[in-house]
Amino acid sequence: MHIRSILQTKAFDNKTTVLQYLVKVIRLTNKDVLKFQEEIQYVVFAKSVAMERLLTFTKQLCQDSRIIAETASKQGDKYRTCATDPKQKIIDVKSQRSSVKELRQMATFIDEKDVPIGKTDTTHFERFALFAKLELQKALGVIKEANQTYISMLEYFGEDTKTPAPDFFGVICQFIDAFDLTSVLVERDEEMKLKEARRALAKEAK
């Protein structure tokens, strides 16, 4: 049964909702389950995550990082050629030195000895581009795994696998709110019935 259906469908007596019936059964069998929302308290944050958009955006960043890495490699090759061949002249030496200085100040995050590209004397730009590329690939892997887990969860709840995360978790939040309200109403109703029963017993005792 879909979560939305639980909030709306009537039970066998056509008066009690399925949610009210569910709460009554839980109160009789295992009251600890009534606190289930404490275990999924981060749902409210998940509601704001646009999984598909995040996946698309990260894929685009990975593509961009590959282009940057290729550009860095070409520029690095030119730099190494100029450094080893006296015949090669660098145009605008002042500007070139300024660019090199900026690159040396850039946080590359990867030491030259750890660069797995089979080159020596790699530039800061190359190492930075490689680091960015590797980190984005890791991020993409994590996001893909999270997306697959999300799809499996949708299948478990009988929802359309194309349902956006904000919509699904929004319904979960609605369910939690409705469950809490129903729990209060059911408890209040049971207390009233108990009081009425006690009054009836007291009246019979007289």
Topology at a glance:
Layout: H1 3-8, H2 18-29, H3 43-46, H4 51-84, H5 93-105, H6 124-156, H7 165-205
Helix pairs in contact: 2-7, 4-6
Short description, anyone?
By secondary structure, the chain is mainly α. It contains 7 helices and no strands. The model has no long low-confidence stretch (mean pLDDT 77).
Task: Sum up the structure in keywords.
single chain, rod-shaped, mainly alpha, 206 residues
Description:
The protein is mainly alpha-helical. The protein is built from seven helices and no strands. It is rod-shaped. The model has no long low-confidence stretch (mean pLDDT 77).
Mean pLDDT: 77
Helix proportion of residues, in percent? 55-70%
Q: Give a short account of the largest sheet.
A: none
Indicate the overall shape: rod-shaped
Number of helices: 7
